[in-house]
């Protein structure tokens, strides 16, 4: 069995589970028939209780109250079942994120709320957060050892939200959306992968303060960035610097 989140990236050139989950959330899709949903519910509960490595298709069938053949008719392999469970969790996460930030009145509030709610949702998710705590050797390598593809998908999601803000005129037109999204995602991912001994993740007020101090200022325009060296402000001696 591959690391738990290895399925998130998918085969080279094919849509990843995260990409598919993001698309499903944006489109409001909720795939699967009643039996598939029943099996996914059982698999979620089984993986949450025992972990992915220690769970079998027979365990899932027993918990769902069906035969093992029924499970295999819907999901050909354990990897496919794991992939679909994870996809559904991230689809729910993206959908919840989109709903949560709509309650914020300003773009700064949306960034703060998005940062706090994202970390809370993943860490407190019974399956994903639980596995990060119980089976870090199965989860962390998949987040950090896939050439950055998993983080890139989340970065694209954040960048898409920031572009909507730009289109609405709530952030400056000269803000480098992709770079800002990259920095925001990397900060969030580092907190998930490497727990802090300085910041209390369970203290929402403290997390909001961190976001306001370090993430919100990234939305300010008017500066000039040098892409080759990412210096700020631009090194006037750098001939390839581009306006920010």
Describe it for me?
- The chain has 244 residues and is mostly helical.
- It has 11 helices and 2 strands.
- It has helices at residues 17-27, 34-50, 57-64, 68-74, 78-101, 107-123, 128-134, 136-144, 149-168, 177-193, 204-215; strands spanning 224-225, 242-243.
- Strands 1-2 form a two-stranded antiparallel sheet.
- Helix 3 (57-64) packs across helix 4 (68-74) and helix 5 (78-101) runs antiparallel to helix 6 (107-123).
- The longest helix is centred in the middle third of the chain and has 24 residues, at 78-101.
- The protein is elongated and about 60 Å long.
- The termini are far apart.
Topology diagram in text:
Blueprint: H1 17-27, H2 34-50, H3 57-64, H4 68-74, H5 78-101, H6 107-123, H7 128-134, H8 136-144, H9 149-168, H10 177-193, H11 204-215, E1 224-225, E2 242-243
Antiparallel strand pairs: 1-2
Helix pairs in contact: 1-5, 2-3, 2-5, 3-4, 5-6, 6-10, 6-11, 7-8, 9-10
Q: What are the key terms here?
A:
mainly alpha, 11 helices, 61% helix, 2% strand
């Amino acid at each position: 069995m591959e690391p738990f989140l290895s399925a998130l990236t998918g085969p080279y050139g094919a849509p990843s589970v995260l990409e598919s989950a993001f698309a499903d959330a944006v489109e409001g899709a909720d795939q699967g028939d009643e039996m598939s949903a029943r099996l996914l519910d059982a698999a979620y509960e089984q993986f949450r209780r025992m972990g992915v490595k220690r769970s079998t298709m027979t365990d899932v069938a027993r918990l769902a109250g069906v035969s093992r053949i029924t499970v295999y008719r819907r999901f050909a392999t354990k990897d496919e079942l794991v992939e679909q469970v994870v996809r559904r969790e991230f689809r729910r996460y993206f959908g919840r994120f989109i709903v949560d930030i709509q309650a914020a009145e300003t773009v700064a509030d949306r960034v703060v709320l998005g940062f706090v709610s994202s970390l809370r949702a993943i860490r407190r998710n019974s399956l994903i957060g639980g596995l990060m705590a119980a089976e870090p050797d199965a989860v962390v390598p998949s987040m950090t050892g896939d050439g950055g593809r998993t983080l890139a998908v989340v970065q694209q999601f954040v960048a898409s939200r920031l572009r909507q803000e730009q289109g609405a005129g709530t952030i400056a037109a000269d803000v480098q959306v992709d770079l800002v999204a990259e920095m925001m995602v990397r900060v969030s991912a580092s907190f998930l992968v490497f727990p802090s001994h300085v910041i209390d993740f369970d203290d929402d007020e403290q997390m909001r303060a961190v976001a306001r101090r370090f993430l919100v200022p990234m939305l300010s325009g008017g500066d000039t960035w040098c892409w080759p060296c990412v210096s700020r402000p631009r090194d006037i001696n750098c001939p390839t610097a581009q306006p920010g």
